[in-house]
Amino acid sequence: MRETLNRRLSFIGLILLTLTGLIAYRLVSLQFGIDTAYFAETAATEYRYQITIRPPRGEIFDRNGVLLATNAVEYEIGLSPVLILDREGTARQLSEAMGIPVEELLADMSSPQPYVLLVRPAPASMGQRVLGLDLSGVVVTPLSRRFYPHGSLASHLLGFVALDDTGYYGIEGYYDDLLQGAVEVSDESRIPFEATGGEGWRSGSDLVLTLDSGIQYLAEQTLAQALQETGASSGTIIVMQPRTGEVLAMASLPAFDPNRFASEDGALFDNPAINLQYEPGSVMKVLTMAIALDQGLVTPDTTYNDAGMIEIGGVEIYNWDRAAHGLVTMTDLLAQSLNVGAATLSLQIGPTRFYQGLEAFGLGERTGIDLQGEIGGTLQKPGDPDWFESDLGTNAFGQGLAVTPLQMITAIAAVANDGLLMQPRIIAQRIDPDKTVTTFEPEVVGRPISPQAARTLTQMLSEALAREASPALVPGYSIAGKTGTAQIPIPGGYDPDQTIASFVGYGPIDDPQFVVLVKLDRPTSSRWGSETAAPVFGRMVARLVVLLEIPPDAVRLASARP
Amino acid sequence: MTHNHDDHWVQQAFRQAPWRMQTQATSLVLAVVVLVAVIGALYLAQASRTAAAGRRLQQLESQRQALEQQNAQLRAEIAALRSVPRLIAEAERIGYHEAGADEVEYLYVENAPPAPLPTPAQPLTVEQVTPRYAETLEGWLSEQLAALSEQLGAFLRSTFSRMEEGEQEPTPSAAQP
C-alpha cells in the first residue's frame, strides 16, 4: 500500500517536474532564444512611445517689460464613441459646456469611427469647462498657440507663428531658433517603473525689444489718422533714438492681426519699413548737402545762381515749381527744396565722392537690423550697367535710387548724432532659460560726415523749417527736418499724378533724442510732403515729447545752466 | 573483529538520532523558505512602492503640464487686460485724457539720481517652484545607509561623551551660558 502511494507520488512529482522544466525551458528560450529581439521589440511597441516635446516659446517684451507676444492655450475636443458609457448624460453635459445641440452630439456618438472631432480650436474657457466634467470617452487635447495681447499693434515688427510652430516675418521669423528653444523627441514608457519625470525642457529665450509700446501705439494711431485725412493708401512711421540707433516705434498701415494670420491678406505680412523700397525724393537733399559740407565745398551762406534748369548727361532737371530762383544760399536751397541746386551740388562733389558719401550713409546695403526680409534698396554707381551720367544729378534730389524707410531714417539719424552712423537695433536684451541676460550695446557703424558738418547741417535744416513756417514745427521745441515728395516710377517714366510724401526730422537740435520718419503713399488731399507728411510729423512729435518726458527747450536749457 | 566491533560502538554512540537529523533538515529547508519569502516580500514591497511612486510621478507630470497650461493661459489673459489699446480705452472711459505738451509741468530737481532702467517681469520657471524628482532605488538605499551611519555615529559620540563626562566633574564656568 505504502509502496503504491510512493510510486504515485513519484509519478506526480515527475510530471510536475517535467512541466516546470518545460516552463523554465520556454522562459529561457523566450529570453535568450533566436526570437528574443522580435519579442523585445513587440513588447516595446506596446508600452513605449515617442513624444515630441515642444518647450514653451520664448516671450517678447517691449523696453518697459510689457508683454508683446506670449503663449496661450486652446483645446481640441473630440469623442471616442466606444468609450462613452452614458450617451444621454454625456451629450447633455457636453451640450451645456460647448453649446452644441444634444441631437448633434448623440449623432456623433453613434459614429463607427474610433475618434470624432468636435471642435478645434476650442477657446480655453470651453476646453477647461469640458475638462472639469471629466467625462469618459470625451478627449480634450491642449494646443499651445502664440498670442499677441495687443492685437495688430507692431504686427509687422513682431511677425507671427504659424500652425507648424515656426515663426515667420519680423522678430518671430528672424529669431525663430532662439525663441523656439530645444525641440526634443523623447522615448516615454507607460510602465510606472520606468517613469523618470522627464529631464525638463529647455524653453526658448525671451527677447526684450527696444520698442516702446506706448510710442508704437502713438505712431499707429497718428498714422491711421493721417491715412484718413490725406487719403493715402498706406504709410509708415518710424521713431528712432539717434544716439543709440534704438528703434522706439516702427508702424506701418494697413497692418494685420497676427492672432488671425490665417485669415489675413498675405500681402500685408511684408514690413514696408524694411521690405519695400521707394524713391525718397527731396529728403535726399539732406545727404547731398551733408556730403558737400563735409567735403568743405560749401557753407550755409554759399550761393549759386539758380536758373530753374540744369542739364546733366543729356537730361534736363527742373525745380519742383519749374521756376528760376536766382542767387540763393545753401540754406535757401534746403528751405525751398530746389532740385537744380541739389544737382549743382552733386556735380560739384563729383561722382566718386558723391557715391562714396551715399555708401558711407549706408545706402545701397541692408542696415543689418534683426528683422526678417530686409532689403538693401537700389543704388546704381558709376561703372554699373544701369548707371547713367544723368543719375548723378537726379540722385542728388532723390530720384533714380531707392531706399527703405529704415535706411533713410538711419542715415538722417547719423546727421542728428554728430555724424556717427549707428547700427539700427530692435533687440535690447536676450534672456536665456537659465536667466542669463545678454544686453546688446549700441554699435557705431561708421562716420559718414564730421561732427562740425553735422551740426552745421542741423542748424541749416532747423532754420529752413523756421523760414517756411513748416507745420512740422512743434511750439517750444527746436526741430530740424526735411520734406520729401517723390514721384512713383512706372514703366516708361513716372506716375504723373501720384506721389510718396515724406518728412524726416529730429529734435531737440542741441541734444537730439528722437528722429521721426513719416511716409505717406499716394496721398489724395495733396501731393506735397510739406502739406501732408509734415503736419503729421508735427502732431506726432507734439505727443512724443510728452511720452519721452522731454521738457520744452526753455525749461531744459534753463535747468542745464550751472 | 574486535576492533570493528569497537568502532561500531563508537559510531553508535556519536551518531545523531534520526529524529534530530530530520529536524535539522526540516529547519534548514524552512530557513531557506523563510529567507526566500523575506527576500520576496522585501522585493515586492520595494517594487510596489516603486510602482506607486512611478504612477504618482506620472500623475504629477500630467498635473504639472495642466498647471503650466493654466498658467500660460492666465498670463495671456493678464497681458490682454493690460494691452495698450485697452488701457487707453479704459482710462478714457473713467474720464482721463492724454496730457498735451502744454499741460505738463517739469520740475528741475538738483542732483536727482537718474531713473533706473526698466526691467521686464520674469515668469517663474518650474525649477524655481519645485525641485526635480530624481530619486532612485540606489539613491534611496544610499540615503538610508547614510542616515543609519549618521545615527550610529551620533549614538557612539554621545556614548563616549557621557563616559568622558562621567570621568570629569563639570566646572562651574562650563555650566554658565
Radius of gyration of chain B: 40 Å
Specify the overall morphology of chain A.
elongated
- Quaternary organisation: heterodimer
Number of helices of chain B: 6
Low-confidence stretches of chain A: none
Radius of gyration of chain A: 35 Å
Q: Total helix count of chain A?
A: 18
Largest sheet of chain B: none
How helical, in percent, are the residues of chain A?
A: 25-40%
Overall, the morphology of chain B is: elongated
Separation of the first and last Cα atoms of chain A:
129 Å
Percentage beta strand of chain A: 15-25%
Order of helices and strands of chain B: HHHHHH
Any overview of this molecule?
The complex is a heterodimer of chains A (562) and B (177). Chain A is elongated. Chain A contains 18 helices and 22 strands. Helix content of chain A is 36%, strand content 23%. In chain A, the strands form 7 sheets. In chain A, strands 2, 3, 4, 5, 9, 17 and 18 form a 7-stranded mixed sheet that branches. A 5-stranded antiparallel sheet of chain A has the order 11-10-22-21-20, with helices on both faces. Chain A has a two-stranded antiparallel sheet with strand order 1-8. Chain A has helices spanning 2-32, 36-47, 87-98, 102-109, 124-133, 155-158, 170-174, 176-180, 213-230, 284-294, 330-336, 339-349, 351-360, 389-396, 405-416, 451-467, 533-547, 553-560, and strands spanning 48-53, 60-61, 67-79, 116-122, 138-147, 160-161, 167-168, 184-189, 206-209, 234-241, 246-253, 303-306, 309-312, 315-318, 326-329, 421-422, 427-431, 437-439, 444-446, 480-490, 493-507, 514-521. Chain B contains 6 helices and no strands. Chain B has 177 residues and is mainly alpha-helical. Helices cover 71% and strands 0% of the residues of chain B.
